[in-house]
Amino acid sequence: MRRIAAIVLGFLVLAGVVGFFATRPFGGGGAAGRGQRPSDARGRSLVAADEVVAGAPVPAPAESVAGGALGAVGEIPMVGPHIVKTASLDLLVGTGGFEEAFERAQLVAGRYGGFVVSSSSRGTRIRSGSLVLRVPNESFERALADLRDLGRVEGESVSGEDVSARFVDLEARLRTWEAQESVLLRLMDRATSVEDTLRIQRELQDVQLRIEQIRGQLRVLRDRTELATITVSIREPGAVIRQRIAARERRPDLGEAWARAVDGFLGVVFVVVVGLGYLVPVAAIGAVAWFALRRLARLRATPTALR
Rounded to an integer, what distance in angstroms lies between the CA atom of residue 234 and that of residue 102? Predict the structure, then answer.
């Protein structure tokens, strides 16, 4: 019994090792960008034509649709630098000067075609407060210079993040999924049965969901690059300075730990199942071969014993 348990355990461990190496992304890159078929979140291949409509050959991956990788949807346009600009400014104003400085800071955003995202103030006798402003990227430096004039600068930080590569990646992925969508729409027109139509519709919904997700990411990214963010803190002498709590210092989240544990468990199960998919057929063939050789050896031994 122990021997059988040890064999089963060893087989599962071997399956896990095989599954791990089988699911490793050798060479890097996703399926959608390497000539393979895109897959949805559940790992399903997003429809080759011969898998959906019998007898209606259509190119399998979106990249090869209509005679070229992305030829059907045009070349990826060259993009200029896309910079996400942010700044933080700490100002000290004179006693009784908080109200005026606070109002002038709000006017700076409107002067350059921006707006106030949020504002807050504290205190009654000694005032302090903060604002978050969004201004067009081209007016970022001028708005920052106007804000510096509102008081004495106690602290300042300015940063810029180049997200041009992110734009290129998202736009390339969007064109790939749009090409896949056009294939599915053509398949929908050529479907000859209700079953085929429903299958194509399910795949089309998955592809359109991916397209909307990427478009949403592009909208957010464009918003961040078109409008810079400036956080302004203003205080009078004697006001308490609020300390910013870093994200890394937040308390651990038990829900997040549980979610990671579940993801880890499912990941191990996934790898083992993939490994079993490789090992079970090999083990079955090996067992058949072993029994055949054993049978053949017995047949050869029988005439020798009779002699």
Answer: 7
pLDDT digits (tens, 9 = 90+) for 40-49: 433 444 444 3
Neighbouring residues of 36: CB distance < 8 A, sequence distance ≥ 6: 61
169, 171, 177, 179: CA torsion to nearest 10: -120
Burial 217-256 (b: 16+ CB within 10 A, else e): bbeebeebbebbbbbbbbbbeebeeeeeeeeeeeeeeeee
Q: What six digits make up the tokens of 280? A: 């079970």
Residue 119 and residue 233 in contact, taking contact as beta carbons nearer than 8 Å: no
pLDDT digits (tens, 9 = 90+) for 139-149: 999 999 999 99
Domains of the chain, residue spans: 2-21+260-302
User: Whole-structure pTM over 0.70, yes or no?
Assistant: no
> What CA–CA distance (Å, rounded) separates 150 from 145?
9
Which of 209, 160, 177 is closest to 73 using CA atoms?
A: 177
The pair of three-digit structure tokens given for residue 138, joined into one six-digit string: 């081209």
Selected residue with higher pLDDT from 10 and 62? 10
Distance set, CA 46 to CA 13, 41, 62, 72 (Å):
31, 11, 9, 18
Contact call for residues 212 and 117 (beta carbons, < 8 A): no
Alpha carbons 112 and 138: distance in angstroms, whole number: 9
How many whole angstroms separate alpha carbon 280 and alpha carbon 285? 9
Task: Give the separation between CA 29 and CA 298, rounded to whole angstroms.
Answer: 53
